[in-house]
Amino acid sequence: MRVASPIPHKKARIEIIPLIDIMFFLLASFMMVSLSQVHMKGIKVNLPKGASGQTQSKRDYISVSVDESGRWYFDKEEMTPEKMQAKLNSVHAENPEAKVFVRGDSSTPHINVTRLLEELRAAGFYKIAFEIKSYSSAELPATKR
Fold first, then answer.
1. Burial degree of 65 (CB within 10 A; 0-12, 13-18, 19+)
2. What would the pLDDT profile of 117-143 be if each residue is shown by its tens digit?
3. Which residue, 26, 84, 87, 88, has most beta carbons within 10 Å?
4. What backbone phi and psi angles, to 5 degrees, belong to 24?
């Protein structure tokens, strides 16, 4: 004869929700650490702001900059147009697939950035991106909220 226990018998369950919380925490932690390790190669300019900006984390890129007075910089070194063209040609010969980030001061005339783009195209670079600063949530225009 079988006697029933007064304690109700429940099957063991594995709760997955705490595991998911831990995994999201680890993912967010690793993302924050990896974003803080991005090294900026350009000079300090007042970048224009955009709502769709993303951080680039790869290291195989070059950075060219234009300040508001129209001076050109390769990484942080000021260059004349002739030196810039020679430098771009040598970099393109070493790595034709290199990505180019163009940093332009927000108050620089459009023609200065256009001249730099012409030099980049003449050197053979076609993977060109404009570097912008992302809006913080407090700075977003009312139309983007």
1. buried
2. 898 888 888 888 888 776 665 565 555
3. 88
4. -65, -40
Tokens representing residue 77 in the block? 């070194």
Dmax over CA atoms of the chain, in Å, equals: 100
| 93 touches 113 (CB < 8 A) | no
Is 108 within 8 Å of 68 (Cβ atoms)?
Answer: yes
CA angle 63, 109, 123 (to 5 degrees): 40
Q: Is the pLDDT of residue 114 over 90?
A: no
Which pTM was predicted? 0.52
Selected from 3.40.50.150, 3.30.420.270, 3.30.2310.20, 3.40.50.10140, the CATH number assigned to the domain covering 49-134 reads: 3.30.420.270
Q: Which residue in the block uniquely carries the two structure tokens 């018998």?
A: 9
Token reading at 119:
């030099």
Q: Give phi and psi for 43, each to the nearest 5.
A: -80, 165
**Domain locations in the chain?**
49-134
